[in-house]
Specification:
Largest sheet: 8 strands, parallel, barrel
Structural class: alpha/beta
Protein name: Glycoside hydrolase
CATH architecture of the largest domain: Alpha-Beta Barrel
InterPro entries: Beta-glucan_modifiers, GH
Signal peptide: 1-22
Biased composition (Basic residues): 25-34
Order of helices and strands: HEEHHEHEHEHEHEHHEHEHE
Shape: globular
CATH class of the largest domain: Alpha Beta
Region (Disordered): 23-43
Length: 358
């Protein structure tokens, strides 16, 4: 998991929106940069005064930190929004999930990080037959073919290209996706180009360029469904060009990382952020492509991580959002690394009580 970088101007904007940073999940291929990242957290001294304490990625206080001195120069985007083909970026109205249950994130890895076999994937999917949408993140481990073979006939798959910035890997992964899915395009709900790339420091223009290139390639291969880039809701609001170039708004939003929201408020947090995100991206549908709550880890302000808190949070999310979310995640990701930056909860987002959705 990698913390977002914010300029002082961005922090002021978020405060105006009453938004605090919901930290994203690190994925299997993320490599944490050793460079310290200054991250503002608010500590209320009085009812009227707010003081910022800057911490590094491990949560340690940075003394004498100057955000003005450390803020990067504004990025110069090379993409001209006015020149885009609006037929490619129109809201296609398919951000919703058809069915009575939410979507679920699935990762095809064993506890040691090795690839699950096709038989293991099929065994996992025996528990997911009633879920209308399953999200995967990449093409490694033959996951696209294995998931398409294991899913129920009515289930759609939200697929992704994880390696985007390296052009050779990006092209190879695109070829792999098309080879695996070209005979099953009707089963593909959405293709995501990248996950939380801008939040992790990637160039906005590079992500948008890859997104539009991928859409062109996919259209030529016969895929006519939505193509998006997924990022944190904060990154999207700070860079609306991401949603302007996506066929709908695909946002990750985790109330647990806000610090001011307990489990019972998870649903209302998502509802509030929905309005803020849509205001930044008018005319676009929104799908929360990751949300959930850990069942183990350290407290983060009002947010506590326990099985009962997870159940409470998921009930709150279910009541507020219905099936129009993708929940993180099918089972615990024990191949990940817990850190202080993730409140030692990174491994423990697997849903414990699926009866909530019956």
């Amino acid at each position: 998991m990698i913390y977002s970088r914010f300029t002082s101007l961005a922090v002021a904007l978020l405060l105006a929106l009453e938004v605090t940073v919901a930290q994203p999940h690190g994925k299997r291929h993320h490599k944490r940069s050793p460079k310290a990242v200054a991250e503002p957290t608010a500590e209320t001294q009085t009812e009227y005064e707010t003081v910022y304490v800057y911490v590094d990625e491990n949560g340690n206080k940075i003394e004498n930190y100057s955000p003005e001195a450390s803020a990067p120069a504004p990025e110069q985007h090379s993409v001209d929004v006015s020149s885009l083909n609006t037929a490619n970026t129109a809201n296609k109205g398919v951000a919703s999930i058809s069915g009575s249950k939410p979507g679920i994130v699935y990762s095809p890895y064993n506890d040691d990080g090795s690839c699950k076999s096709s038989a293991q994937v099929s065994s996992d999917f025996a528990s997911l037959q009633d879920y209308p949408l399953i999200r995967i993140y990449g093409v490694d481990c033959n996951q696209v073919s294995n998931v398409l073979a294991a899913k129920a006939s009515s289930t759609k798959i939200f697929v992704g290209i994880f390696n985007v910035i390296d052009s050779t890997q990006f092209n190879n992964d695109m070829s792999s996706l098309i080879k695996s899915a070209s005979s099953s395009w009707g089963s593909i709900h959405t293709v995501a180009i990248g996950n939380e790339l801008v939040n992790s420091g990637a160039s906005v223009s590079a992500v948008v360029s890859a997104l539009n290139s991928a859409r062109t390639t996919l259209r030529a291969a016969g895929y006519t469904g939505p193509v998006v880039t997924v990022d944190t809701f904060v990154a999207i609001m700070n860079n609306p060009i991401l949603c302007q170039n996506s066929d709908y708004i695909a946002a990750n939003c985790h109330p647990y990382y806000d610090g001011k929201v307990d489990a019972s408020g998870a649903g209302s947090f998502l509802t509030t952020q929905s309005a803020n995100i849509k205001a930044a991206c008018p005319g676009k549908d929104l799908l929360y492509t990751e949300t959930g709550w850990p069942h183990q880890g350290e407290p983060n302000g009002l947010a506590k991580a326990s099985v009962s808190d997870q159940t409470t949070a998921l009930k709150s999310i279910w009541a507020a959002m219905g099936s129009n979310v993708i929940l993180f995640t099918f089972r615990d990701d024990l191949w990940k690394q817990n850190t202080a930056a993730t409140f030692n909860a990174e491994k423990y987002w697997g849903i414990k009580d699926y009866s909530i959705f019956n």
